[in-house]
Design brief:
Elements lengths: L4 H14 L4 H29 L15 H10 L6 H16 L3 E3 L6 E3 L18 H4 L1
Antiparallel strand pairs: 1-2
């Protein structure tokens, strides 16, 4: 007999509802997990690019790094990047590390941060630069 995916799905949904997890809660959790996954993937690719190491044919070096080391490496930037790009990387790494509210724009040349509230993310990071900033 083939596996009954619809019945199993309904069973799982019923168990989640018994735990108090309604569909709107699950949507929010799914959105957060997706956003974090995109953040982590983008962070790893940025670190690979900054290190200029080939990851082809082996496990990427970032798999053994903890988040603190990843943010430190991101903040370190690269001598091949402009001062503006390195400033953005430094502010972004610091914001991710201590969760400060931050507003970063490169179209006006402003890099600002406010470390008044460290217990939760309340700001926005806006990166208005072209990828050529990193690759060109």
């Amino acid at each position: 007999m083939p596996y009954d995916y619809p019945a199993k799905s309904l069973d799982i949904q019923a168990r989640l509802m018994m735990l108090g997890l309604r569909p709107n809660h699950l949507l929010l959790m799914g959105a957060f997990i997706t956003a974090y996954g995109l953040f982590e993937t983008t962070l790893e690719r940025a670190l690979w690019t900054l290190s200029e190491r080939s990851i082809e044919g082996g496990r990427p070096f970032t798999e053994t790094m903890n988040t603190e080391a990843q943010f430190k490496m991101l903040g370190g930037g690269s001598s091949k990047l402009s001062a503006k790009c390195n400033a953005i990387l430094q502010v972004a790494a610091h914001a991710a590390e201590v969760r400060i509210p931050v507003n970063v724009t490169t179209d006006s040349g402003n890099v600002t941060g406010n470390s008044g509230e460290r217990d939760r993310w309340v700001g926005v990071a806006r990166f208005n630069f072209m990828p050529s900033c990193f690759f060109g």
